[in-house]
Design a protein that fits this description.
heterodimer, A: mainly beta, six-stranded mixed beta sheet, about 0% helix, about 55% strand, B: mainly beta, seven-stranded mixed beta sheet, four-stranded antiparallel beta sheet, about 50% strand, globular
Chain lengths: ~110, ~120
């Protein structure tokens, strides 16, 4: 079983749609959580961190459920420019102060159409 | 401008010919790492370094070497490249290792083809 699992998609949605991505992680030592965005053949870029209480940044909302080991990203009113691959990323701290290890999901591809 | 710089961006070479991909960051970050990205497998960590002279294996270290003699540089060395190392490689850095919600800054990527 992969440590971080995402639905690879692709998700094809019309402009203005609301789309949700889900991610599950298997290591209970996971401490920090992120969503990254990656455009085709480009480097991943941090979209937002995910906090336990849930957090919002404009049209983007991230949620964390530690009990279920589940992370989500909601995009409202999707734009053409949202087309990209969205990577769920988990930072595992197995040994305190020995440094974390980032585990990337394989990514979910989103295509927003006019 | 804060950045992570990788070179070369593209390289086609042959099996067995040693190569080095350089990575440099100008943000005084302590933590640096190398990833490879392959279709269907996502990003996998090759090696990481928590500070100068401190390096450790990631998930897929076989066939690779790294060094961290200076804080800003973290080269990836393929002593004897093989076709299964054909991939897209990313170098990344962050201020510290393992602490809370901090982003990793990625280089633009290096596309390696080993024939």
């Amino acid at each position: 079983r992969k440590e971080v699992e995402q639905d690879p998609g692709p998700f094809n949605v019309p402009e203005g749609a609301t789309v949700a991505f889900n991610c599950t992680y298997s290591n209970s030592a996971s401490q920090s959580f992120f969503w990254y965005r990656q455009d085709c053949r480009k480097e991943p870029k941090l979209l937002m961190s995910v906090y336990s209480s849930g957090n919002e940044d404009g049209r983007f909302t991230a949620q964390l459920n530690r009990a279920s080991q589940y992370i989500s990203l909601l995009i409202r009113d999707s734009k053409l420019s949202d087309s990209a691959t969205y990577l769920c990323v988990v930072n595992i701290h197995e040994i305190y102060n020995q440094g974390g290890k980032l585990i990337f999901g394989q990514g979910t591809e989103l295509s927003v159409k006019p | 401008e804060a950045q992570v710089t990788q070179n070369p961006r593209y390289l086609i070479t042959v099996t067995g010919k040693k190569l080095t991909v350089t990575c440099s960051q100008n943000m005084n970050h302590e933590y640096m790492s190398w990833y490879r990205q392959d279709p269907g497998l996502g990003l996998r960590q090759i090696y990481y370094s928590m500070n100068v002279e401190v390096t450790d294996k990631g998930d897929v270290p076989e066939g690779y070497k790294v060094s961290r003699k200076e804080k800003r540089n973290f080269p990836l060395i393929l002593e004897s490249p093989s076709p299964n190392q054909t991939s897209l490689y990313f170098c990344a850095s962050s201020l510290y290792a393992g602490e809370g919600n901090q982003p990793q800054h990625f280089g633009d990527g290096t596309r390696l083809s080993i024939l």
